[in-house]
Amino acid sequence: MILNKSIFKAYDIRGVYPSQLNSKTAFFVGMAFAQKTKAKEVVIGRDMRLGGNVLKKSLMAGLSAGGVKKIIDIGLVPIDAIYFAVGKLKHETGIMITASHNPKEYNGFKMMAQKMKVVRGEQLFPLAQRLAELNSKKKNTKVKIVKENIWPGYIKHVLSFADIKKIKPFKVVVDAGNGMAGKVMPILTKKLPIKIIPLNFQLDSTFPAHPSNPLEPQSQIQIVKKVKETKADCGVIFDGDTDRLFFVDEKGRFVPADITLLILAEKFLEKEPGAGVVYNLICSKIIVEKVREWGGRPIRTAVGYVNVAEGMRKNKGIMGGELSAHYSFRDNSYADSGFIALIILLELLSKKNKPLSEIIKPLNKYYKLPEINTRFDKREEMDGKIRQIKNNYKKYKQDCLDGVTVDSWDKGGWWFNLRASNTEPLLRLTIESKNKTTAEKVKKEVLNILAI
């Protein structure tokens, strides 16, 4: 049996179900995970995506065949419930069956080894493929499968990140996008003084309301309209497994995720002056300026929630975030959580006693163009375009932490990054400058060089 190598990604495993990812693949993923981590205990959760139960059954069989002695099934949960189970409840390892914000046809696995270390899909592939070729299906009859209700402890943990008594009775539009937020928010808001206006709370793997990715323009139409219509204080929209959360201000405008990172960071730096705040390299220059101004240490990483978490661990960071709206917290075992970000922001809104639009206004200092994505079938083509940019901009400051970043901020008032996506066959271009005119000029020049 030959596994589909393309679904074994840089951070996790994602593929179209059942053509790319099916029960046979799930079995050998489980077996490979067990052998690679040498785990004796695995926590398994899933979201509402297509094929979740089928994949879970086969995954458990593979874990058993690989030598796992105990499987803890925590049922239908958001992704950060797995992080809670492994990081806080100290279960040995964990696997979440999800494809995050991918289209409805997809499913996949996010995998945590001992001490919350991410098991990357690309690292697991060689072992999984060898096992598939051997077609090993040895059954472990001694495996114990138990169900565990993690909800009371999980909700208590989320609420511990803010002083609930200080949160004002805001009116908040919440778009669950037919994902797991539809299950979590009714439980969470029973403990909060806010009034929620729910959108798309029914769990549905077909995502009938709009795509699961909040960054898709068609995903934003409904919540923007509802915030304006109801005169809500703010709005929030989640992706399918709830690890990504975007805020909408009271005027119906989306708040860039790096600006949200800054708002959250201010609270943590007040609590722990000098703490590290992690951001990825396509975040705005305002991050560095404000974090330093507030007495913190800005820590720059490559793009990807895994890289942000690793940057926090290595540099004693207290929190981190990125443009894709993952917000990670040291006291959440360095993992991300949309719900923790939500309650922290509600507390901050209450404390500042200002509309969200006024809070973010001084932070929107620079001009950033929407990310430009170009599809390429081969990674070699993307690597060639990156080399081309390196050669054409030799006289400028460059670094290659992720793709290539060309920086002329001090002299020209601009910077840009060109990198290959780790999750999709896309070449991504990010441009920021001190004004729109300069940004458009840089864009035209770069695209001309790339012949895009």
Architecture blueprint of SSEs:
Blueprint: E1 13-16, H1 23-37, E2 41-46, H2 52-65, E3 70-76, H3 79-87, E4 93-97, E5 106-112, E6 118-119, H4 121-134, E7 144-147, H5 151-159, E8 171-175, H6 181-188, E9 195-199, H7 217-230, E10 234-238, E11 245-248, H8 257-271, E12 276-280, H9 286-293, E13 297-301, H10 305-315, E14 317-321, E15 327-329, E16 335-336, H11 338-352, H12 356-360, E17 367-368, E18 372-375, H13 379-392, E19 397-399, E20 404-408, E21 414-420, E22 426-433, H14 436-450
Parallel strand pairs: 2-3, 2-4, 3-7, 8-9, 8-10, 12-13, 12-14
Antiparallel strand pairs: 1-5, 4-5, 5-6, 10-11, 14-15, 15-16, 17-22, 18-22, 19-20, 20-21, 21-22
Helix pairs in contact: 1-2, 1-4, 8-9
At a glance:
37% of the residues lie in helices and 23% in strands. It has helices at residues 23-37, 52-65, 79-87, 121-134, 151-159, 181-188, 217-230, 257-271, 286-293, 305-315, 338-352, 356-360, 379-392, 436-450, and strands spanning 13-16, 41-46, 70-76, 93-97, 106-112, 118-119, 144-147, 171-175, 195-199, 234-238, 245-248, 276-280, 297-301, 317-321, 327-329, 335-336, 367-368, 372-375, 397-399, 404-408, 414-420, 426-433.
